[in-house]
Amino acid sequence: MASKIEKTLARLQERIHEGHYYEAHQQLRVVASRYVKQENWAAALEVLFNGAQSLLRAEQYGSGIDICLFIVNVLRDAQMKPDSANKGKLISLLRLFPAEEPGRKRFGDEMIGWSATTGEFPAGDPELHDATGMLFAQEHETYDAERHLILGTKSATAALVDLEFAWYTEDESHTAPLYAARAVLPYLMTGNVHDATRSLSLYQARLTDTKPNLTAQDVREGNVTLKIFPSLPLLNFLGLLLLAVQRGKAATYRQLRKHYALHIKDAGSWDEALDHIGEMYFGIPIRRHTNPLFDMMGGLFGGGGGQSSQKPAIRRVEPAPEMPAADLD
To answer: How many Å apart are CA 139 and CA 141, to the nearest integer?
Structure first.
């Protein structure tokens, strides 16, 4: 069987080398379909992967995307898990597409969708999200990069912070909290308190490193140190929000939102995200409606912020010390 596959691949390579791309493409589909009919998944994938790689390297992106999508369908039909070998092959194909090729985005979405149905992560495999998000980040496609990096591995957190901070440096100094929130709030909305906290810490470190004249104070409360920026109240709010989430007391959360209400209103787009956070972590009910930040993640989870008759369970996290009583504006 191995020699038969090798001969098939050699003939395909010859067709491609001679510039007979359409013929190679069709032959590839016929051979792979035969293996699929026999449920010889390994042979089908070997032929398809090598063929897709050759077509993409020959800059035949239309044919390449067709074969890439064929690969995902085979993985799905075979109910194969997203193991390191399969993920590595898919990622290597993804990286062969140029940024301007529209089919690349569809391929990325399809492979993540396959991993969501056969793997352990309902929103898709984090390593696939990493690879997709990193590509978009390198190409300065910020919105697409965000939605993948948020659902990536722990190594994606630093990349996301770099992305947001670079975006912030193109804006006015007082807008720093708005870009920090683009990491902190979505992380919280996906239940990832750890990376929400880490992203804020990394962002604050970048801020103090690049702006030595910016006043910052460390406030110690038990085993928690909060970094307070007198000139950036919304950045202080994010830190206090994370501490409140760890503590899980609804009264504390309500008091925090009330104290910063005017600043939050000025931010312009935080209220609905904060409403969902209030429901997730503090059990504060909200009227069921959609919001842009929640829907950004909802597409990847196969849902959104629509109507639901079931009250969401309150998320519990490790206890944290009491919040500082001082006014931390």
So the answer is: 5
Cα–Cα distance measured from residue 140 to residue 135, given in angstroms and rounded to the nearest whole number: 9
CB 129 within 8 Å of CB 149: yes
Per-residue pLDDT of the chain (329 residues; tens, 9 = 90+): 557 888 888 999 899 999 999 999 999 999 999 999 999 999 999 999 999 999 999 999 999 999 999 999 999 999 999 999 999 999 999 999 999 999 999 999 999 999 999 999 999 999 999 999 999 999 989 999 999 999 999 999 999 999 999 999 999 999 999 999 999 999 999 999 999 999 999 999 999 999 988 998 888 766 778 899 999 999 999 999 999 999 899 999 999 999 999 999 999 889 999 999 999 999 999 876 555 555 655 554 443 333 344 444 555 554 443 434 334 44
CB 47 within 8 A of CB 31: yes
CB neighbour class for 219 (10 Å; exposed up to 12, middle 13-18, buried from 19): middle
How many angstroms separate the CA atoms of 54 and 39, rounded? 24
Backbone dihedral region for residue 223 (phi beyond 0: left; psi -120 to 50: alpha; all else: beta) = alpha
* 150 vs 248: CA distance, rounded Å: 23
What is the reported pTM?
A: 0.82
